[in-house]
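Data availability (excerpt). The following record was deposited with the supplementary files.
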Amino acid sequence: MIVIYGIKEHLNPIKAQLSDVIHGCMQSVLGMPEDKRAHRFIPMDAEDFYYPGGRTPAYTAIEINMMQGRSAETQKALIKTLFQSLEAEVGLAPVDVEVTLKEQPPHCWGFRGMTGDEARDLKYSVKV
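Predicted structure:
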């Protein structure tokens, strides 16, 4: 699951485009299938969204939750691909994007009535 935060006046107009670009990066780097898009957008009032100095009101925070298993090289490739694609396709400067990868062991995931370590029918590999 991916959670995207931003100031609502900047985030709302680009939500669909952000979703497409983020999912495209997940597909190209991690091999995620087309139908595995799970994005949650949190548009916030400016007074509720504090961000670091040197950023603009377009600052966007992206949290990517995933099962453990991807190599450090794969994780870094995902982050760098996101920066490049978001700048090229959405116009978000890398300085205005923060990406956090959050990994949990498969047994900490629950979906379709089972835990992640019980799933045997994933259409993608976690070990990339």
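Summary of structural features: Strands lie at 2-7, 39-44, 60-67, 97-104, 110-111, 114-115.
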